[in-house]
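During the reporting period the student researcher (J.K.) took over the structure-prediction task from the postdoctoral fellow and processed the backlog of single-chain submissions. One of the processed entries is reproduced below for the supervisory committee.
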Amino acid sequence: LIVGLGNPGLDYKNTRHNIGFLLLDYIVNDKKISFDKKKFNGIYTEYNYNGEKIILVKPQSYMNLSGKVVYDFMNYYKINLEGILIIHDDLDMDFGRIKIVYNSSSGGHNGIKDIEKYLNSKEYTRLKIGISNNKDIDTKDYVLGKFSKEDMEILKEDFNKLVDIIDDFCDISLDRLMNKYNNK
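J.K. obtained the following structure tokens:
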């Protein structure tokens, strides 16, 4: 179960907070599939990779209410915590930097807090993507601000390097996954 966090609707398209949606859209486009199904207040797609069903989900609840969507998909498909990867923004990391973490603090991210509440655990994998922080702008306004054209070009280059991360999440151990991607 691969979940990209974001907010639904055109008002939030290409905002910093929606970087999880953006990466999943990029991966779906690369794999030539589409988000063509709806369930549990999420849009999703499925594909098979080496005999394993991969489910990519974009919750359609708002960011801070993502937990129930993740919980419902996890229960319906009988996915254990080790089979979950959550992709989200991180204000405390430089723009474009990525980090894979496991059993880690929410860092104040309300979407992650809600997921932890519903799963009653932090023992799942997360891919954090840095969006930097501008202390001159209110945090809410900053995360809901749109990426510049230049930032979007940089993200496309970064996403191109991350296109295999879903397959790698299925193929290699968490330690190897962290070593492969956390050093970039």
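The committee noted the following: The helical segments are 19-30, 67-76, 110-119, 139-143, 149-162, 165-171, 174-182.
J.K. will present the remaining backlog at the next meeting.
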